[in-house]
Amino acid sequence: MTSFGPVAISCVGVRKQFVLRHTRSLKEALVWLVKGRKGDLSKKFLALNDVSLEVRKGETVALLGLNGSGKSTLLKLISGVLQPDGGSVRTRGRVAGLIEVGAGFHHDLSGRDNVYLNGAILGMSEKQIDDMFESIVEFSEIGEFIDTEVKFYSSGMYLRLAFSIAVHTDPEVFLIDEILAVGDEPFQRKCIAKIKELAEKGKTLFVVSHDLDLVSTICERGVLLEHGKVIMDGEVHEVVGELRGRSLDA
Amino acid sequence: MAGKVDGFVRPGSGRGLLDVYGDRFLLKLLVRKEIKIRYRGSVLGLLWSYVKPLMQFLIYFIALGIFLNLEHGTPNYAIYLFAGIVLVNFFTEALSNSTRSIVDNRDLIRKIYLPRELFPVATVWVSAAHFLPQMIVLIGACLLVGWAPSVLQLAAVVLIFIMVSVLATGLGLMFGAVNVYFRDSENIVDMIVMVVTWASPVLYVWSMVQRAMGPWYWLYQLNPMTTAVEVFHWAFWEPTLKADQVVTGTIPPNLFTVWLPVSMVVTLVVLFLGQLTFRRLSVHFAQEL
């Protein structure tokens, strides 16, 4: 890994805990207080436990694991949506996520308005969006519908536009969460080609996906999470093999 | 982004309202979006921003000015009434919408990191955009009855507008953040909104309160909205009074020497507390929403 640049993402001893509240009634809280705060009012769930990870600039990392292993939580910590309960997460360079494509879309606005709104939400400046606008529309294959309200779009058009904006945000670090399955097959191929192009340009990719064959063609490094812990970190094919082995045992 | 050490940043750590200033472009788009979608599919569109307050004004004017005959004791009661109503409308709309802004934008907040202060601030701007047409109606009405304000009075209008915006932002940040954890916050704000119209001299005259409260009048005057409404009366209503209509004590004593500075300090304290509460609570917004 000597060819990679400085550290882009650094996680040190990261711990994230969620509180599962069963009830939030005032009465129960009072009873609990009167009884001398015995027992736990809420159940806690440790999503990530002492995760340490370093990703260098230009690396392409696949975050693998079964459902509930903490992959998405880790991604949200890196994007800043969540804050760790212990340890530290630090990033260098602009980080943008292809997390939940279209989260910032508004149905009553036109495609054009949504491109600007969503671009700005993902951290683009007005000038960047102006410059990229043609390219975004072209990639999305929306064409003349760009001035139609988004609520009249088919689900495919919607996702294509959202994905197109996201890949044009041009950050140094890309976080990608399960969005490779966008639109029909030709468009999917186009998306994957675009992501590979980004990787070749030296962008740092951090991908979460259950499509193991696909991630092993895009990424070089694999990190395997299980119950919130890193249990393997190495060449992607080996890690995929390990995960497949474990899934069979389970 | 704060927390820079050798080029590293801690994702999700912001500088609060300062980040909102840095993100003016996004703020502009958010405000425009809100304005666009508010009256979507309606024929009258932005005209509703004129119709609603006019209706409210008519009701109050007929019920209080004519039926209760307040017009008799307060010349140009219509102007007096409307100057207060528009300001209070601005405040209540800004406050109640910013309180709901975090919960309303939960889809975004759960998925993408943005300076979260953007949402309450954007709603205050949207309210300001609705306040503007009402101001135009007010100024038009004032001009009809011979309004001739001084430069100082015009400057006071701008100052009060800024003060009320800041006050609404501060309270909106506070209640908006608490609303994520306890939806009771919305109901508390609904009550504040209800009280505020009556807790400032919008429908009546300040001296009526002084008569009733006596030595405790200063308590009433501590409310920044009271001062704001009184300054608006001074700027809009007083200059419309004719020589033969002069009323004694149009504004309470010490309004400009004591109460305006006090209100500005209270407002800044509210903003500070609002930002503080917001920062404390915003750390866990994404998992609590």
Automatic annotation (TrEMBL), chain A:
The keyword ATP-binding applies. Keywords: ATP-binding, Nucleotide-binding, Transport. One of its GO terms (molecular function) is ATP binding. It comes from the Bacteria. Residues 26-250 form the ABC transporter domain. PANTHER family: TEICHOIC ACIDS EXPORT ATP-BINDING PROTEIN TAGH. This is ABC-2 type transport system ATP-binding protein. It comes from Pseudarthrobacter enclensis.
Automatic annotation (TrEMBL), chain B:
Residues 44-281 form the ABC transmembrane type-2 domain. The lineage of its organism: Bacteria, Bacillati, Actinomycetota, Actinomycetes, Micrococcales. The keyword Transmembrane helix applies. The chain crosses the membrane at residues 43-67, 79-97, 118-148, 154-181, 188-209, 258-278. It comes from the Bacteria. Belongs to the ABC-2 integral membrane protein family. Keywords: Antibiotic resistance, Cell inner membrane, Cell membrane, Membrane, Transmembrane, Transmembrane helix, Transport. It is found in: Cell inner membrane; Cell membrane. Its main location: membrane. It holds the Pfam family ABC2_membrane. InterPro entries: ABC2_TM, ABC2_TM_bact-type, ABC_2_transport. This is Transport permease protein. It is a multi-pass membrane protein.
